[in-house]
Amino acid sequence: MLFALLNLALCAIGYAIAYREERWSHGQMGPRSLPYLKHGGMWADWFLLTPIAYIVQDSILQSWTPEKLTISFVSATVVSIIAHIFWAWLQPIPGHIVDPRQHRLPVGGYYHMAYTAIALGLILQFYLFTPEADKLAVSILLTVWVVPSTIQPGWYVAKVTTGKGKIDGTSWTASTILWVVIWIGYLL
User: Fold this and answer.
1) For the chain, does the N or the C end have fewer beta carbons within 10 angstroms?
2) What is the DSSP string of the chain?
3) How far apart are CA 126 and CA 41, in angstroms?
4) Which residues sit opposite 34 in a β-bridge?
């Protein structure tokens, strides 16, 4: 239960940062933006990563070592940094975690980078270092999580910028890679 409560607290902090930075809603950011409230990934973090955190906690606490944690969290941090740099450069409209007008991350973006590293680090720890754990429920939840986290933002950005929502190649590519990695992790 501790990991689930920690995830909810971290999501609430991200929510508060978005509100404080005026990146919470279209009312704060304007109509050509991807604010916190319209980003499906933020809601997926609340409602899909929280049960995942609950499921993985016991397995991780029983199997962790400093070496395993280092491998998981260093890998997750590198992936998170690369992903956020990629988003900052390719996002055509401002959002709560990116601001392409200056090719930078706002405070909420740096916070999201840290949150992503923590969440991904725990997921990597679970998949790589708990071979005895049943990974089916987590794999299903992560498979569902991909849709609001990668496909919906791409669709929404297209809708805002072109007037018609569509799923672009970048969203499909990222989603496919994530799905393949999730199910390879399941098979390990």
Assistant:
1) N
2) -HHHHHHHHHHHHHHHHHHHTT-SSHHHH-SSSB-GGG-HHHHHHHHTHHHHHHHHHHHHHHH--HHHHHHHHHHHHHHHHHHHHHHHHH-SS-BSS-BTTTTB--HHHHHHHHHHHHHHHHHHHHHHH-TTS--HHHHHHHHHHHIIIIIHHHHHHHHHHHSS----HHHHHHHHHHHHHHHHHHH-
3) 21
4) 95
Dihedral angle sign, alpha carbons of residues 107, 110, 106, 147? negative
pLDDT of the residue at 156: 92
The position carrying tokens 């990668």 is 150
Alpha-carbon dihedral sign for residues 157, 158, 162, 164: negative
**Which pLDDT belongs to residue 101?**
79
How much is the pTM? 0.91
What is the distance between the alpha carbons of residues 100 and 187, in angstroms, rounded to a whole number? Answer: 38
What pLDDT does residue 87 have?
Answer: 83
Task: Report the amino acid identity of residue 87.
Answer: W
| pLDDT tens per residue, range 166-185 | 888 888 998 999 999 999 98
